[in-house]
Design brief:
Length: 127
């Protein structure tokens, strides 16, 4: 019954911005770690950013540090990824992920650490 639905993807020119959103349904409280992963064609799904249960602690892949910001709204059961100063290398399908089991205090930065995934939203950065 738990579902994650991403939105906000699209096409943007290099240097522009996009804001991705992920809504969690089927669970009343969003007090668990969540993350964003990106997958380019032919490549492995890679970690982008993660956030702890409260939103007080965040983690970023080095290439997006200083450009992307992950945040969450506990009441609305949403997590967002603000992407600024975007580069063509950011082009990928972005997936929202959540860990709804295990210690809520842990924040995984790998696919294996999450057990619920959205369908993904395409992000394309043009030259």
């Amino acid at each position: 019954q738990v579902q994650l639905v991403e939105s906000g993807g699209g096409t943007v020119q290099a240097g522009g911005s996009l804001r991705l959103s992920c809504v969690v349904s089927g669970r009343p409280f969003s007090r668990y770690p969540m993350a964003w992963f990106g997958q380019a064609p032919g490549l492995e799904r890679e970690f982008v950013a993660a956030i702890n249960w409260s939103g007080a602690t965040t983690y970023y892949e080095d290439s997006v540090k200083g450009r992307f910001t992950i945040s969450r709204d506990i009441v609305k059961n949403t997590v967002t990824l603000q992407m600024n100063s975007m580069k063509p290398a950011d082009t990928a399908v972005y997936y929202c992920a959540a860990r709804l089991s295990g210690p809520a205090a842990l924040v995984p930065v790998s696919q294996e650490g999450y057990n619920y995934w959205g369908q993904g939203t395409q992000v394309t950065v043009s030259l």
